[in-house]
Queue: 4 jobs
Job 1
Amino acid sequence: MTNNPEPLRVAVLASGSGSLLQAILNAQDNSYVVVGVFADKPCEAIDRARRHTPRPPIVQVVDFSDFGQARRPQWNNLLADSVAASSPDVVVSAGFMRILGEEFLDRFGGRTINTHPALLPKFPGAHAVRDALAAGAKVTGTTVHYVDAGVDTGPVIEQREVPVHPGDDESTLHERIKTVEREMIVDVLRDFRSLGTRARPGG
């Protein structure tokens, strides 16, 4: 008799248009299910999540502007409380434009992952595509990695290469990276119980 595990429960953090979130939502199957979508501000990603059928996730905006830098720890705690209510196995930072603090990582460290548009450890930070072009890179790509207290420094789960074409600008290169990024995050989530364990911090 085959022992079929329950689908991986996925919470997604988003801040922008939600195109990566949409790919994750659309690809749900018996391997994973999106149980929650959380944003730091009202955004299109939240609208996408609210429209999604037939399995709508918990959807919540934990608005950073209600707290600000001085109260960042309180915001991190509230975000962690909100995510915890969806009982996720893994948290995906999908275009989430806030650095997660220790208050969040104390609860979800080792099971929070991020996508980054470069082959880490090359070109960390918010301008990875621009930095790759400025450095004259012939090949860049995208990485799924664990989130830790640093900036794009957590253990790598998977990477895929994207060639830099002659005449590429930041926009054209980033669009090709995003196409690969969407495919990769879905593949990682579908096989997370083996891929994630291989790279998990402390594992």
Job 2
Amino acid sequence: MASARSRSRSLPIIFALFLGLLLCLAIPAAASASQPSPQAGSEKPDLICHTSNPAECYPRVFEPTDEFQTVHDDQELPNGLHVRLNIWTGVKEAKINVPDEINPALEGLPVDQAVVLVDQEQSETIQVPKGAPKYDSIGKVKEPAPGGEAQVEAIAFMETFKQLKSGVIPSDEEFYHGLEGLEELSHDIYYGLKITEDADVVKALFCLMGTRDGEVTQGVTPRGQQAAAILAGALSNNPSALNEVAKIWTDLMDSSCPRDGAPIRDHFYYPMASVGDSPGKVKAVVSVINGLIKDGNIRKHFLANKGMKQLLGVLFPEGEEWAAAQRKVGQLVLDTFLDEDMGAQLGQWPRGQASGDVTCLAAETSSDDGCWDYHVERMVRLKRGQWSKELQKRLTAARKTNSKIPGHGEL
């Protein structure tokens, strides 16, 4: 009996221990279940899918390889990759960065004792006069000292040069600074010639110049304006550079821009002041035209394609911010067509008589060649400067003289 009572007393104790053990096992499981799973909305999905087709999905984080692959706009890029952009298509590509990989932008540059040489004639010796500018005349550049500023400039020149040829850039910011540097060097006779000697680079600059400003970050010069400034710098007081462009002019105008497939002619002859371009951009383009039409054949092409109509449109705006661009137009017309003392060849323009106010106030005829007189008079009334009075006087005299030339009608 004692043994039975002992067993009966021990059963509740064993049962209590068993329940306690179950509770110990259940509490961590319940706690675990009550906590949200890290994958339950706290992490982004590993794939990005814009359609129901699984084949069109791609990794959220870009997975680089040794070859360039397209990077989607909403993909995340790991740090340290080799990234490049296409200035015409806007496509971004990336691959694994190789630190010792040769930069293709420098391919073809001769290197001697850590000094980058730019087509130098080693056997030629030129006596440089005291106080001469940094660079010598066409065909010769002073050998840059190792690690010197000239070496850095030569490398930067070639990098931007090849980016223009290929259309592939490392980033918008680097390309912007590259164009800035190229604009500075373009005023040098040697580098200005080098720019115009390469037809692909000239084509790229004309296509960039033809791009509209669009939305521009304050303080940032639009690419179109940068390209125009480079061309203007290369052509300014550089007859050899102008001759290079003149040799390819017809083919250049017939070439198409990769951005939209339109011929460069359409991008060059456009109503500059009425498509949203800034006054600064328009002024730069007028500077390019001023340099180009110093060549007789290009000038004939410009007149035949109603280029004067394009220039006249710059005189339409009345805002003071247009004054500098309008002065540039006035000086171009005086120096090229009306002022013989400045090298103008008289008799080429204007042609025909001045139009009346009614014609020049009508939108469809306001840009006619005969309306130059009307709009120049507006410039005088707006007190744009002495150039407007001089242009008005010489334009009136040229109308009278040219009207007496037999067969001097409209082009």
Job 3
Amino acid sequence: MTKTAHLGSESPAETADGERQELETIGSFRFWFADHRWEWSDQVARLHGYAPGTVEPTTELLLAHKHPDDRATVAETLATAVRTGEPFCSRHRIIDVAGRVHHVLVVGDRLHDSTGATVGTTGYYVDLTGRLDQNRQEVLKETLPEVVAAREVIEQAKGILMFIYGINAEQAFGVLQWRSQETNTKLRDLAAKLVAAVVAQGGGPVQQRTRFDHLLLTVHERPD
């Protein structure tokens, strides 16, 4: 029986090898507060060391994979999200079934039902452990000519992600690619909307970070 939900899975025929490899480091999740039910994308299952469809994610399983030094903090972050319904962002370590340590960024936003009520959280994992090599960067440039043509605005968007989350340029570009594919939005259009929306925001650093987490997951819905 298939246990893991297939959130944001991509077909190998739909993307070049270099892009597909990069997108394997980013995956989606959903969590419903009422019954503590989780859904993991194939990428998140693989990040934890499981073949897609072979494990049913639970809160206990999720916490068991956290690095012992990070487990209590993650548990408190999750408890706060359930209690308040507020978005969250966490950088921590997980240990997969083979014992490999992965440094991850996890961003969660509100999950709404058909009435608009907050019923859970939805978001994504970014595996910060690996980096793109030069060959893979060249593949991306060849298969995504619009990226090269719109370099300036994409570089601005990458810079924002790097500053907000403390990640490197390759990881920031991977996040933009993933949101582009997940929302069926051209990369340069997504980057332009993100930059414009960030410029329009005000408030202090904490407010800006919280708003940016939400913005990253919803900016594709904004009008051009």
Job 4
Amino acid sequence: MHYLHATLTETLRLYPAVPVDGRCADADDVLPDGLHIRKGDGVYYISYAMGRMPYIWGNDAEDFRPERWLKDGIFHPESPFKFIAFHAGPRICLGKDFAYRQMKILAMALLHFFRFKLSDDTKEVTYRTMFTLHMDEGLQVRAVPRRGLVEV
């Protein structure tokens, strides 16, 4: 299950469910780079872009490579301040482990019973960045039952 966990994590690195997030300063503060912020200022970060930054993830940052999360076949997480799909620090997502469990169960069930094919593999998939990441016009796929497992 380590490779599945790495695959889901790599997917979230490149396509985080919440691509833009921010906080409001509740007191005057200084960010690590020296920028002064005042109480009430909004501080936003774009996790969609951060997951593709070469200085964070290396020269292959835009490549889908689940192996980046594995060492000798075992999943090794990065700091939540680097992989921010579930946020970090005192506000890290309490449902992170539950979310991974749900994703794994659903992925195993779907992949066990079906093969998936794009309805139109010539159409480019595009995204709309909103509070949550949406596929523009959805992703049209055909689920084909695997032979011997499901009656056709």
